[in-house]
Design brief:
The chain is α/β, with parallel strands linked by helices. 34% of the residues lie in helices and 20% in strands. It has 15 helices and 18 strands. A 12-stranded mixed beta sheet has the order 2-1-3-4-5-6-8-7-9-10-13-14, sandwiched between helices. Strands 11-12 form a two-stranded antiparallel sheet.
Amino acid sequence: MRTLLLASGAALALAAPLAAHAETACADMARATLPHAEITAAKSVAIKGGQACDLHVTSRPTADSEIKIEVMIPQGSAWNGKFVQVGNGGLAGSIPAAQIKGRADEGYASAGTDDGHGGNGRTAIWALGHPEKIKDFGTRSLKETTEAGKLLVKAQKGEAPKRSYFVGCSAGGREALMEAQRFPDDFDGIVAGATANYNTLSTGGRAYMQQTLAKPGAYLATPQLQLLQDAALKQCADDGAFIRDQMACRFDPAVLKCKAGQTEGCLTAPQIASAKAIYGGRMVGGKSTFPGYMPGAEAMRGGWQAWNTGTSKATYEESSGHAISSQFLKYFVYDDPSFDFLKMDLGPKYDRDRQKTAAVLDATNADLTPFKSHGGKLIQYHGWNDPAIPPLGSVKYHDAVNAKMGDTTGFYRLYMIPGMLHCQGGAGPGTVDWLTILDRWVEEKTAPHEVTASSASGATQLLCPYPGVAKKSGDAWACSAAKKKG
């Protein structure tokens, strides 16, 4: 059988009978060959705009690599001429098929990857003794997906995508910043949500928090979380359901300290220490090494219990943050399945130990000059009440980029979303069609400014490019400068 040959960096060479066709039949795409990769399935599937060619690829760039990739290409007029790659989440382990299908429904040729291993997103045992798989997880699977996705689009359509975008949140937000930093020429625009780019620092912070929670009498159960949330909202939300200006909020959990003989409606000294560890982040030598979490949604469903404290003291190790951080330290940093982060040294030693992992998995380079020179546009966003990834980490990165590059408003905007939890949900409206806003910025060369976020209930709120904050004057909302925290 004659094959379709795909060479890296080149278009797919079609067999002579197919060369005259503007669009190759989906079934014929199964005949394509890729460098160190194979197409394992090619079938036509229904999407909102008609049909799409759904291609599954396995890439093996090293002897220990097995990267699963899915590429979905809308057929005929269902394609809008553009390509979007979606990010993964947690510790990955499966292809984000729903996201890929969702973007194809919108008309985009779309692609995603399992990041080079199987798993449930909370386990990293696959990394033990497999440094190449860790590299696949860090960046290589992203590049493999980009190359395969774009070339398969060109092979199927007879033309390259006119625009290419990357969209990711959480671990996918880390991947988004990896793309901007390490592969600056690959995308015209990037959306980076709730970015886990300070991977090793935030993991150390969570270990610090968990060590504090594990001390005698220090656990924060539902009643204590509700006390914290109510007090924070009373102080900083002006009787609202969420805090609109977190940078102006100076909430101290010590206001809830039990008085002599008081046992209800207050926090003990160990519980206050736990709350301060969660709000303040890991401390070394009296200084914060990385920020903690923000007040106002401590007891909310999907908040601290889901990620940090669990639903009870007996089950708090099942919280996503505890599980993922324990796995991260066992298999990425210390290569030891028996490693117990509740007993680890979180002083300067950890900052030395994490360096080898940081080089592969952190995305902290503040020099985005190559991405800017390519003409790329970057939108970063983060919910102020994110219980999984410290929101001030996004502020830290934004400030670092501006300190390095000067005024970045021509290509980079950060939006902090009051009341939003991790990537979605929360008391504050947080739904925004970031990809459409990005596409308009790339196509029309007009930077976004004020953005309206919505919720399923129909509520809305105005979002401002950081450091702006939405302020109400009469019946109208407008963006104004925020106060610096400190």
